[in-house]
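Quick note —
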Amino acid sequence: MAFSFSIWERILINLIHKLFEVISVKKYLLALFVILLTSNFIFAQQPLKIGYVDSQVILTQLPEAIKAQGDLDALTNKWTVQIDSMTKELQDSYADYQKQQGTMKDDKKQVVQQQLVEKQQNIEGFRRQKFAQGQGEIYKENEKIFAPIKDKVYKTIAEVAKKEGMQFVFDKTGDVLLLYADSSFDITYQVLDSLKRGKK
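Predicted structure written out below.
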């Protein structure tokens, strides 16, 4: 059984093959895309409709996301102020030590030096606890605050995509890069509008 592809389908398949060659890091994703694309052509013979969103636009304009980011920024600022305060206290203690060390006995010097080291360690420990890459409380809070918003956004993307008859929707700001995107397929503002109107 022979299958005939339209000129646009052939151009799209050739583009996918070129993308596969150019972006070697994303081979597994592109391979999956090619498999889905060709199976759609071969078995369904339906026109392919692809959409994309800019999640950065959605998250900077959606009221719930703006509030969540404000809450996260407030928490970050609170912890940063605490670190600044602890650092200032350490600097003041060190300045006092420098002024008095000439008249201090050796055992007193050791005690003060140990206190300074402990203060420094406390600052570093607090900083790691709050901001350590991937493990700090700020990352846990980020996940906790944004998880329900992301779920709502993903659900709305799926609903808009189905309504528009799209087989694929990519995120422009994600790991899968788009080298070309026809703006007529951009459903970012439709998703944002649907979210703002309160559709669940």
